Amino acid sequence: MLVHVKDEHDPRLDLYRQVRERDLVGRRHRFVAEGTFVVEHLCGGRTRFAIESLLLEERRVDSLRRACATLPVDVPVYVVSQTIMDRVVGFHIHRGVLGIGIEAQRLSIDDLLTRPNAKLVVCIEGVTNHDNVGGIFRNAAAFGADCVLMDHLTCHPLYRKAIRVSVGGSLLVPFAISETSLQYVESLEGYGFRCIALTPQKGAPVLEELLRGLQSERIALVLGSEEPGLSSTVLSRCEQAHIEMAFGFDSLNVSVASGIALHTVARHLGRIS
User: Fold this and answer.
1) Which end of the chain is more exposed for a tag (fewer CB within 10 A), N or C?
2) Which stretches does DSSP call E strand in the chain?
3) Is residue 133 in some structural domain?
4) Which domain holds residue 229?
């Protein structure tokens, strides 16, 4: 339902006001989807999240007309000028496409690991950078990970910037949040997963070599933040592996490392050729 709005103070736009500030204080189980690809995922029924409304700059309507046609009739699509959009949102939003999603019922670790097809899991400990979390979810979606587990210190994947960087991956890949990283490691062990922690330590085997000796069909890839890395508690419970690099270099951005490692593990499991 297209609704043309000419007044920047229209209360129907209140959920879109001052987006950056509200990113920090929360939205009461709502989140903001930004950009054409992300909104198309949200509209297309591929995610477990409902959509409450869209806000489109008037020149973006034609490119999203097909996605809008899939929405329930009671979901409004607010259409505004670029000037009104910028004033409402609080900054120049050149993409001109926003949506308000409703957070679905939160999943537990058991919900995810009891699924019969759960064989490739990504685990995150203490990664607070939104770009990195978004990048990890993008890689998880690209290489067929079945779910992502994270501790409560990790940036929430439904933060606007994390969703945007993930290109909708954090809406597509189911996730669960535990109080501590040890909690999800213990659960993974209980469900028969082999937990592989990425580490820059050269004493650890190269990931490809470690995988060649694994018979398990259930693998969890465990990633930590770039500065402190994984905690000693988690490292002690996992098999460790590193990504081979040239010229003595031993460090990669965690999002980049997740992509390389997930590609390697996905090939080992036959997810990709």
Assistant:
1) C
2) 2-4, 30-34, 50-57, 77-80, 97-102, 120-125, 147-151, 175-178, 194-198, 219-224, 239-241
3) yes
4) 109-268
Q: Do residues 59 and 142 both lie within one domain?
A: no
DSSP conformational letter for 117: T
Whether residue 25 has pLDDT greater than 70: no
Say whether pLDDT at 233 is over 80: yes
Looking at the structure, tell me whether residues 87 and 128 fall in a common domain: no
Closest by CA position to 175, among listed 201, 196, 154, 193 = 154
Of 203, 204, 188, the C-alpha closest to 239 is 204
Question: Closest by alpha carbon to 130, among 32, 261, 233?
Answer: 32
pTM for the model: 0.94
Confidence of residue 61 (pLDDT cuts 50, 70, 90): very high
Q: How far is CA 196 from the centre of its chain?
A: 20
Q: Check which CATH number belongs to the domain holding 51 and give it.
A: 3.30.1330.30
Q: 187 and 97 in one domain?
A: no
pLDDT at 211 over 90: yes
pLDDT at 55: 98
Paired tokens of 124: 């995150």
Q: Which phi-psi region, left, alpha or beta, contains residue 90 (left: φ > 0; alpha: ψ -120 to 50)? A: left
Q: pLDDT digits over 155-174, tens only?
A: 999 999 999 999 999 999 99
For residues 248 and 168, give the distance between their C-alpha atoms in angstroms, rounded to a whole number. Answer: 35
